[in-house]
Amino acid sequence: MVTARPQPEEPRENDPQRGLELTCMSNLLSTSQERVYFKDRLSRFLLVSEGWIAAYAPGRTAGDVIGKTDFDFFSERHASAAFEDEQEIIRTGEPLVGKVELETYSHSPDAWVSSTKMALRDDSGEIIGTFGISRDVTAQIRAEQALLDQAQQLGVQNERLRELDGMKDEFIGLVSHELRTPLTSIIGYVKLLRDERTSEANADQYAEVIQRNSQRLLRLVEDLLFLSQTHSGTMHVELRSADLAEIAQSAVEEMRPEAERKHIDLVFSSVCTPSLPVDATRIAQLLGNLISNAVKFTPNGGKVEVKVGTEPGKAVLEVTDTGVGIPAGDRDRIFDRFFRSAIATQQVIPGTGLGLTIAKNIVAAHHGTITVDSDEGRGSTFRILLPLKQVPTTDVQDLAAGQAHRA
Ligand code: ADP
């Protein structure tokens, strides 16, 4: 028997009931796997059950435990807390029921127990110590914790889905608006064109407006199509040797009318770049998006610079503007689908939040990187590095995992 207990008093011959009680207690303690303990007023052990020894002092004998305290088995923090609880019970006589506490040991992993402790009274009712039972609830607490973590994760996912749903609604609104504006203009100018009173000079001007708006529509539809294709993983890029400076220059010229309208100084420069394997249409689309953003987010009279250069093994494309800049908190999100910063929505700057997602995907398809460096209120620089040598695969498989980074 491993129970730690003081020598029980010899049962008085004329008190068989007391003898029976002691025998029952002895049996209970020596077999019970529950962690039962009796302590004196100074919280020194008087008796402990077999379960207590197995849990807290394996391999030790009952004699080792008697007279010792929690400080001999648990960490100082845990033993002090237990001591205070027991002193409170002795002071008040009030039990402590089902207290879940973390048991910390010096040399074993922490565990959770649910403890119930009560005052230990002698025959006259005087409190002579405490007794209690502690149940290991580590598995239950861990399961509850795992459930809580899971619930929290689900909550976060739910919130994200709600956010995405909201963004999609907003996106549909934006796309409808982006489609309606040029369409309304086209319809209006077609009417004017058909009007007999329209002069030839005016007709040319109207045709130009119609063409510009049709191109805007086409670009939007192409963006949408491109994105739906990349999302289903079927986008195919055809890499052919091309002159990056040439592509960049025409992208700049395409944006020049809009820059001039805003009196923005649009500058292009390039150092000699070797031809490299790219999908010229896609690179033009990428640059178109970046330059159009730079012009869009730069107030009248600002400057936008497009540079083409090289660094070892890589071609470098840079689009720098003196515009509104990007708040630090937004920089990680600007490449996300549908993301538009507060300034874009507040100032009703046209857009759908797709341009940079497309840019990121095109760069990924070329095995390159795109980074942004920005100073809020002073401007931004988008920097793209493209490998000068062809990388074997040309199919874009998982563009969602594209390589966009903040500088
Ligand atoms: P859109 O331009 O249609 O809003 P984009 O995906 O091209 O969508 O850009 C996402 C967001 O990134 C923009 O709404 C804007 O807040 C920010 N952004 C992109 N380019 C610039 C820039 N050059 N200057 C400041 N903010 C920019």
Description:
By secondary structure, this protein is α+β, with helices and mostly antiparallel strands. The protein contains ten helices and 13 strands. The strands form three sheets. It has a six-stranded mixed β-sheet, covered by helices on one side. Helix 5 packs antiparallel against helix 6 (200-231) and helix 6 packs across helix 10 (355-365). The longest helix is centred in the middle third of the chain and has 57 residues, at 138-194. The protein is elongated and about 130 Å long. The two termini are 70 Å apart. The relative contact order is 0.07. The model is unreliable at 1-6 and 393-407 (pLDDT under 50). Adenosine-5'-diphosphate is lined by residues 289, 293-294, 297, 321, 323-326, 334, 339-341, 344, 351-357, 380. The site of adenosine-5'-diphosphate has 22 residues, from helix 8 and helix 10.
Provide a quick synopsis of the model.
The protein is an alpha+beta fold. Helix content is 45%, strand content 21%.
Q: What descriptive keywords fit this protein?
A:
407 residues, alpha+beta, six-stranded mixed β-sheet, five-stranded antiparallel β-sheet, 13 strands, elongated, disordered C terminus, binds adenosine-5'-diphosphate
Helix content: 40-55%
Largest sheet: 6 strands, mixed
> What would you call the structural class?
alpha+beta
Molecules bound to protein: adenosine-5'-diphosphate
What is the spatial order of strands in the main beta sheet? 7-9-10-12-11-13
Distance between the termini: 70 Å
Instruction: Tell me the overall shape.
Output: elongated
Given as residue ranges, the uncertain stretches (5+ residues, pLDDT < 50) are 1-6, 393-407
Radius of gyration: 39 Å
| SS element count, helices | 10
Oligomer: single chain
Let me know the number of strands: 13
The run of helices and strands is HEEHHHEEEHHEHEEHEEHHEEE
Strand content: 15-25%
Summarize model confidence as the mean pLDDT: 86
